[in-house]
Amino acid sequence: MLKKVKIQEFKDLYRKHIVQDFPSNERPNLEGFRRRILKNNEQVFIFEEEEIKKGYCLVADLEEYVLVTFLAVYKENRGQGIGTKILKELKEKYSEKKGILLEVENPEYIENEKEKNIALKRIKFYEKSNFKIVPDLNVKLYLVDFKIMVNQAKEQEINKQEVIDNLYKFYLKNVSKKRLNYIKFETK
Q1: How far is residue 160 from each of residues 47, 131, 182, measured CA to CA in Å?
Q2: DSSP-derived 3-state class of residue 13
Q3: pLDDT by residue (tens digit) across 46-60?
Q4: How far apart are CA 124 and CA 54, in angstroms?
Q5: How far apart (Å, rounded) are the C-alpha atoms in residues 12 and 15?
Q6: 15, 61, 106, 118: least surrounded by Cβ within 10 Å?
C-alpha cells in the first residue's frame, strides 16, 4: 500500500536509499528535493506490505499526466513484484489523468555495458506494465539522455507535443532558469 510521506521522513529516505539508488547526476540534492516537496510540486510515497517498507516513488501531478520522477524497490525486496505493485497503485490513484509518464535513461547513450544492460532491463520492466516509449522523443537533462515512457489511461495515440508541454512546465517550476538551458527536447 502506498503511504504519503512527510518531509522529515523523506530526509531519512533520501539519506538511506535515494543516494544509493540513483547516481548524483540523476537526482537533486536534499535541499532541491525539499523545495520541490514543500512547493507541492512532488509527493513522496512509501510502499508498505504488512507494515514493512519495501520501496518508494516520487510523483509530480502535471496537468494531463502524472510524472513518476523516481521509483525504486529496496534492494532486499527486488524481484518480488513490488515495483509492479507500486505502478498498479499509481495507475489506480491517478486514473482520472490521461496517463503516467516516466523518464528512463536512454541506453543508446550509455557507454558502460553494465549500466546499459540495467537501463535496458528497466525499460523491459516498464513495458511489462504497459508503458510505451514515446516515439521520436529524447530529453536531455543536464548531461543525461532520457527516453520518456507513457502508460495511457485509454488506448489512444500518444500526443508527443502534449507530453513535451507537460514535462516542460514541470521543469520550469523545478529547475533554476540558469539550469533550464541544459534541458533539451529532441524530436524527429
Answers
A1: 31, 14, 20
A2: helix
A3: 999 999 999 999 999
A4: 21
A5: 5
A6: 15
Q: Give the alpha-carbon dihedral of 142, 138, 186, 183, to 10 degrees.
A: -20
In the prediction, which pLDDT does 164 show? 96
**Can you give the pLDDT at residue 141?**
84
Q: In what order do the strands lie in the sheet with 144-152?
A: 2-4, 43-49, 52-61, 65-73, 99-105, 144-152, 132-141, 183-187
Task: Using 70 as the pLDDT threshold, list the residues of the chain that sit under it.
Answer: none
pLDDT at 137: 95
**Residue 144, domain CATH:** 3.40.630.30
Number of domain units in the chain: 1
Q: Which residues lie across from 145 on neighbouring strands?
A: 140
Q: What's the pTM? A: 0.90
* Amino acid at residue number 152: Q
- Report residue 106 as a C-alpha cell: 536512454
Q: What sign for the dihedral angle of Cα 123, 87, 10, 163?
A: positive
Stated as kind and residue range, the H or E segment containing 172 is helix 160-174
In one-letter notation, the amino acid at residue 21 is D
What pLDDT, on the 0 to 100 scale, is given for residue 22? 85
Distance CA 140, CA 12 (A): 29
- Of 117, 103, 50, nearest to 80 by C-alpha is 50
- The residue range of the domain holding 119 is 2-187
Angle between helices 113-128 and 82-93 (to 10 degrees): 50
